[in-house]
Each structure stands twice: as C-alpha cells, then as structure tokens.
Design brief:
Number of helices: 11
Number of strands: 0
Shape: elongated
Number of domains: 2
Strand content: under 5%
Distance between the termini: 15 Å
CATH topology of the largest domain: MetI-like fold
CATH architecture of the largest domain: Orthogonal Bundle
Order of helices and strands: HHHHHHHHHHH
Mean pLDDT: 87
CATH superfamily of the largest domain: MetI-like
Structural class: mainly alpha
Helix content: over 70%
Radius of gyration: 23 Å
C-alpha cells in the first residue's frame, strides 16, 4: 500500500515539474517570437512589456477597484445561484411528480447560452450590476442544479424507507437524508459554477460595459494599448486560478468527512 502511495506521489511530482517546464517554455517563446519578428509586435507585444504593464496595474487604484467590482458581481451571482439551485434541486429531486412536470422545461432552458440573454439584461437593467447578475446566476444555476439533482437521485431508498418508519416527514427526510447525500454533488456544482460565474462576470463587463476587469480590457483594446490589454487578460486569468483554488479549499473543508477527500489528503506529498 505504501509503495503504491509513493509511486503516485512520484508521478504527481513528475507531472508538476513537466507542467512548470512547459509553462516556462511558453513564456520564453512569448518573449522571443515577437522580438525576432516571427509575430507582429503590433498585435503580440513581447512578454517584458506585458509584465511591466501588469506591475503598473498592481500599483493602480483603478485596477483594484475593477477587481473589486468583478469579485463583487462574481460572489453575489454565485451565492444567489447556489441557494436557488439547492432549494429547487432538493424539492424537484424529492418530489417525483414535480420532476416529471418540469423535466422538459429544464432540458429546454438549460442549453440556452447565457450570452444570449445580454439584450434582455441591457433592456432591463442597463449597465447596472443587476445585468451582470442575471447572466451569472443563469449560467451558474444550471451547473449546480444538475449536480444536486444527481445527488438527490443517488439517495439510498433503504435510508428513505427507514426515515419514514421512524416518522420523519418529507422536509425532515430532505434535511437529514437527501441533503447529506447530495452535498458532495452540490459542492462539485459549486466548483463548476464558480468558474462559469467568473467567465460570465468578465463577459458582461466586456460586452455590456459593467465596471470591472472586462471593461478595462475593452477600454485598453479600443485605445490599442496592447500591453495593457494583455496584462489585464492575465489578471483575469489569475482571478480564475484563485477562484479554482478557493473552490477546492471549500470542497476539502466542507467534505472533510468524505472518502474521496480523505484519499486525496493521504496521497498528497
């Protein structure tokens, strides 16, 4: 057993090293190719110019205000989507007759891209944060809802029958039986929804003009400030990495009792 764990750790370390090397090669090519004339500097500035623009961004209050706007829209939209999806998912998954009446509607609405709602969002809310929230909630809601429905359907029928025998009502069964089973699925949906929510927050800022990182990218692009534009894109990417790290940390904290999380901790170097 310990030999297998050690083997997995070595493989993980090798994979991480290769990832670092690959990323370093990518950065090196980014610096060399524009300087050597293989890429037009007008559209692909060398890495050192983008890096310098990123440092200037970090020193700018406007940049941090934009980050705060994006983070605010992301957080609010994700929380609303999670609460709504948890409530709807638990009810629909626990009451079969409701699921039969709503399944076709859900399957119709779920594939609609959130960006298709941009005209509606602008008509209803203009460039207010509510327009971004509409897109974020709509996109993240389906990610979380589907996972929770899977979780509720995975509840052991024997556990439900036992709860009935002990006199638990429908809502008590949902709280004490269905929700604990669905929680790992809900956290997976939360993690997926967190990434989608950030994408839609930046998209709304790019297209609608809501304040935030996306809006700053659009302003830099219109001014042909390419190093600034790329630096802001990198900043948005850093936010995405942080969102994923945060979601993983929440997953490990909330599901510390779950076998998959305990196994990951045992395999960690």
């Amino acid at each position: 057993m310990s030999r297998a764990v050690s083997s997995r750790k070595r493989l993980t370390g090798t994979s991480q090293f290769r990832g670092i090397v690959g990323f370093a090669v990518f950065l090196l090519l980014w610096e060399i190719l524009p300087e050597a004339g293989f890429l037009p500097v007008r559209y692909f500035p060398p890495l050192h110019e983008v890096f310098w623009a990123l440092l200037l961004d970090f020193a700018s209050p406007v940049f941090w205000h934009s980050v705060a706007y994006t983070a605010q829209a992301w957080f609010a939209g994700l929380v609303i989507a999670f609460v709504a999806a948890a409530a709807v998912g638990l009810v629909l998954g626990s009451i079969p007759v409701l699921w039969r009446y709503t399944e076709s509607t859900i399957e119709f609405l779920r594939p609609i891209p959130s960006v298709a709602l941009i005209p509606l969002a602008v008509l209803m809310f203009g460039i207010d944060i509510k327009s971004a929230l509409l897109l974020i909630v709509y996109a993240a809601f389906w990610q979380i809802l589907i996972q929770i429905l899977y979780g509720v359907k995975d509840v052991d029928p024997v556990a439900l029958d036992t709860a009935r025998v002990y006199g638990l009502g429908r809502w008590s069964r949902i709280r004490h039986v269905s929700w604990p089973t669905a929680l790992p699925y809900a956290i997976t949906g939360f993690r997926l929804g967190a990434s989608v929510a950030l994408v839609l927050a930046v998209t709304a800022e790019l297209v609608i003009g809501n304040p935030g990182i996306g809006h700053q990218v659009a302003l830099a692009q219109s001014a042909m400030a390419l190093p600034e534009m790329y630096s802001l894109v990198i900043a948005a990417g850093i936010m995405g990495v942080l969102v994923n790290v945060l979601a993983r940390a929440i997953e490990r904290k909330v599901l510390a009792w779950h076998p998959s999380v305990r196994a990951d901790r045992q395999d960690a170097p």
